[in-house]
């Protein structure tokens, strides 16, 4: 496995704060009449895809958009409930573009690219303006200003929100913009279509092969550029907070056609999820990080304490995040909160039937809000019942749908008893490597949102996923794509009869035929579950050299077994979700190996990548900046054969330090 440096991030020259402004003023442009002759393909219509498709169509490009759901409204972006960050400083609490930039780089444990992160912070305010103009119903203060709340890893309030359904409301805004273009005929929308490969002609990406999931028909679509906005790959762990349809196929096919994969081992474990209740479970449910604003996390001070939490006195409770990290308390970044919960449970202080959970308690918040409301309403000497009723009303307004969801799933009322939470796989910071223009190593092929690696380093701060998706789609790609498409006018119309389309389509059909004709004894679901066990146990919240080496061999064996024993019911020319599942699991079986290879290669701990061999005396992640301050960009060569390329990370505007939230 050789290493080399063939990567050019194409970061503009000049001071950090001037790079994006200067870039926008000098980037090549495409004149309006030429835009009508250029076709852009957008794969995925969540926040990144819908915003990109709508904006590019508004600019005059011909756009084709594909999603595997029956409507773009079902994109997994709706699951980002808590909020979206922006450096507006409405609270006058010291926020700024630089502070958002600094918090994001520090939160990512100094493993992200300075120029991209600063640009993200720079355009964050414009995202809020755009969404307000679209009618997104952000929460507001009494005086009419948009309301903000806190999220992990920061000491200001910069998170804009719409109750506990921010992602859904933002997606409806982007969806409205997209549907407007569909109605005008500038966007052709293809629902229930899944991209199964990209077509590369003369070194440039010029199309995709897709499958109509309803009829089974294989289709060819040509474009002068292809934008992959297909989300992350957390479902490689089987149990995750991702929707069950989320997969890596679009990004993985691009990877096998030459797009380097960046930092695949950087996976985020979210600390605020409903614990696993059964080994037959197929999905986990996320309770928004926004709940850590007002909820206090604790475990009993006594091991194996089975008492009802209401019977455990205050002095018998260990508010361990507040104890360990007094400066940030319950709002430490996700990787730190997750590892701390695991440590307490592993030490025997876990709660609930499984003992793999901690409490998230709202009794203090209800009390605090209740007394404040009593004062507002001039209620002197309120009773405890009045205080609780007033406090519950405030909590209900802020988080009501989240509390309702918890009660529906667990049967317990979180207004009355503390929620039980435990970490679970959530977001993937890794993804296709992209340069400053968001272009992959394949010319004409771009990756946006969670599908790329660019902005979050080794750990994403809460409420930054929605920010990145909309920044990429609304405000970055509309500019950067011009630097490529300005030269594509000469290409002219791209014929889908080109031999490259013929060859790629045949390869897709051959793979489908192979899956259908193995006629083994094991369902795709069972293989997926087994892969998930390997990944979670040996490449999850904690990793070590021995476990990773074992995982690589186990995954290779499992993949071999898959191609000999998988059983896919039905045929190719029909609606066949089993076939869709098998195809996606096959890709996960390859990705899993690369994730373990990447984790094995990175002999340090940073952010969500926690190698047990590399930690401080206090159990915190121990980075090795001298040897590992780079992006791992993997080039695919053949089965189980990758070459590592390194993009060195340089920090000219931030002082590198060991992360501390104490």
Question: Could you give the topology of this structure?
Answer:
Layout (H helix, E strand, L loop, with lengths): L2 E2 L11 H11 L5 H4 L3 E5 L3 H13 L2 E5 L17 E2 L11 H11 L6 H21 L13 E2 L9 E2 L5 H19 L2 E4 L2 E9 L2 E9 L5 E5 L2 E4 L20 H8 L4 E2 L4 E7 L22 E5 L16 E2 L1 H5 L9 H16 L8 E4 L1 H14 L7 H27 L8 E10 L2 E2 L12 E3 L17 H16 L1 H4 L13 H19 L6 H16 L5 H21 L11 H25 L23 H4 L1 E9 L2 E8 L14
Parallel strand pairs: 1-21, 2-3, 2-11, 3-7, 11-19
Antiparallel strand pairs: 4-6, 5-6, 8-9, 9-10, 12-18, 12-20, 13-17, 14-15, 14-16, 16-17, 20-21
Q: What does this 3D model show about the protein?
A:
The protein is α+β, with helices and mostly antiparallel strands. The chain has three domains: 16-79 and 111-122 and 163-268 and 426-485, 3-Layer(bba) Sandwich (FAD/NAD(P)-binding domain); 271-425, Alpha-Beta Complex (Flavocytochrome C3, Chain A, domain 1); 497-626, Up-down Bundle (Methane Monooxygenase Hydroxylase, Chain G, domain 1), CATH 1.20.58. It has helices at residues 16-26, 32-35, 47-59, 97-107, 114-134, 166-184, 249-256, 320-324, 334-349, 363-376, 384-410, 465-480, 482-485, 499-517, 524-539, 545-565, 577-601, 625-628, and strands spanning 3-4, 39-43, 62-66, 84-85, 148-149, 159-160, 187-190, 193-201, 204-212, 218-222, 225-228, 261-262, 267-273, 296-300, 317-318, 358-361, 419-428, 431-432, 445-447, 630-638, 641-648. The strands form five sheets. Strands 1-21-20-12-18 form a five-stranded mixed sheet. A five-stranded parallel sheet has the order 7-3-2-11-19, sandwiched between helices. Helix 1 crosses helix 5 and helix 16 packs antiparallel against helix 17. The protein is globular.
């Amino acid at each position: 496995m050789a290493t080399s440096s063939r990567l050019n991030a194409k970061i503009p020259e000049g001071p950090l704060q001037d790079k994006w402004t200067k870039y926008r003023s000098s980037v090549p442009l495409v004149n309006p009449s030429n835009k009508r002759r250029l076709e852009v393909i957008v794969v995925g219509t969540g926040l990144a895809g819908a915003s990109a498709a709508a904006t590019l169509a508004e600019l005059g490009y011909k756009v084709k958009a594909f999603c595997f759901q029956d409507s773009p409204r079902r994109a997994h972006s709706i699951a980002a409930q808590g909020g979206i960050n922006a450096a507006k400083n409405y609270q006058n609490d010291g926020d700024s573009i630089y502070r958002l930039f600094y918090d994001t780089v520090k939160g990512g444990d100094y493993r992200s690219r300075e120029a991209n992160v600063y640009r993200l912070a720079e355009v964050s305010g414009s995202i809020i303006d755009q969404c307000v103009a679209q009618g997104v119903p952000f929460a507001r203060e009494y005086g009419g200003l948009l309301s903000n709340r806190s999220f992990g890893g920061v000491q200001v309030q910069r998170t804009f929100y719409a109750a506990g359904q921010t992602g859904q409301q933002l997606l409806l805004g982007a969806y409205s913009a997209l549907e407007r273009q569909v109605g005008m005929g500038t966007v052709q929308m293809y629902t229930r279509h899944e991209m199964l490969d990209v077509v590369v002609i003369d070194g440039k990406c010029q199309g995709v092969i897709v499958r109509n999931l309803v009829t089974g028909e294989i289709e060819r679509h040509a474009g002068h550029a292809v934008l992959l906005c297909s989300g992350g790959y957390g479902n490689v762990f089987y149990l995750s907070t991702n929707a069950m349809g989320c997969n890596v196929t679009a990004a993985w096919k691009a990877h096998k056609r030459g797009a380097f994969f960046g930092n695949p081992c950087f996976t985020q474990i979210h600390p605020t999820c409903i614990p696993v209740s059964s080994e037959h479970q197929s999905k986990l449910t996320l309770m928004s990080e926004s709940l850590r604003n007002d909820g206090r996390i604790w475990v009993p001070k006594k091991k194996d304490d089975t008492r009802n939490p209401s019977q455990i006195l205050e002095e018998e409770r260990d508010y361990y995040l507040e104890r360990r990290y007094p400066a940030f308390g319950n709002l430490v970044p996700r990787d730190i909160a997750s590892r701390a919960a695991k440590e307490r449970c592993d030490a025997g202080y876990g709660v609930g039937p499984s003992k793999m959970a901690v409490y998230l308690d709202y009794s203090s918040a209800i009390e605090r809000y209740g007394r404040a409301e009593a004062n507002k309403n001039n209620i002197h000497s309120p009773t405890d019942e009045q205080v609780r009723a007033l406090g519950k009303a405030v909590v209900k307004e802020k988080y009501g749908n989240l509390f309702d969801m918890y009660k529906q799933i667990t049967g317990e009322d979180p207004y009355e008893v503390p929620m039980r939470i435990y970490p679970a796989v959530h977001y993937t910071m890794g993804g296709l490597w992209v340069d400053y223009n968001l272009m992959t190593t394949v010319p004409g092929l771009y990756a946006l949102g969670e599908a790329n690696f660019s902005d979050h380093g080794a750990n994403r701060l809460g409420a930054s996923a929605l920010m990145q998706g909309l920044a990429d789609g609304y405000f970055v790609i509309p500019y950067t794509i011009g630097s490529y498409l300005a030269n594509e006018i000469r290409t002219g119309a791209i014929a889908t009869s080109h031999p490259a389309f013929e060859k790629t389509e045949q390869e897709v059909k051959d793979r489908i035929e192979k899956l259908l004709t193995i006629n083994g004894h094991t369902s795709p679901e069972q293989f997926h579950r087994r892969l998930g066990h390997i990944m979670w146990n040996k490449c999850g919240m904690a990793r070590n050299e021995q476990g990773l080496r074992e995982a690589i061999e186990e995954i290779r064996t499992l993949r071999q077994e898959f191609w000999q024993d998988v059983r896919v019911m039905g045929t190719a020319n029909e609606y066949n979700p089993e076939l869709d599942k098998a195809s996606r699991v096959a890709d996960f079986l390859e990705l899993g190996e690369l994730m373990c290879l990447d984790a094995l290669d990175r002999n340090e701990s940073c952010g969500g990548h926690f190698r047990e061999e590399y930690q401080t005396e206090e159990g915190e992640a121990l980075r090795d900046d001298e040897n590992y301050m780079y992006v791992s960009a993997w080039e695919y060569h053949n089965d189980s054969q990758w070459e590592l390329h390194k993009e060195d990370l340089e920090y000219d505007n931030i002082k590198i330090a060991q992360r501390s939230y104490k």
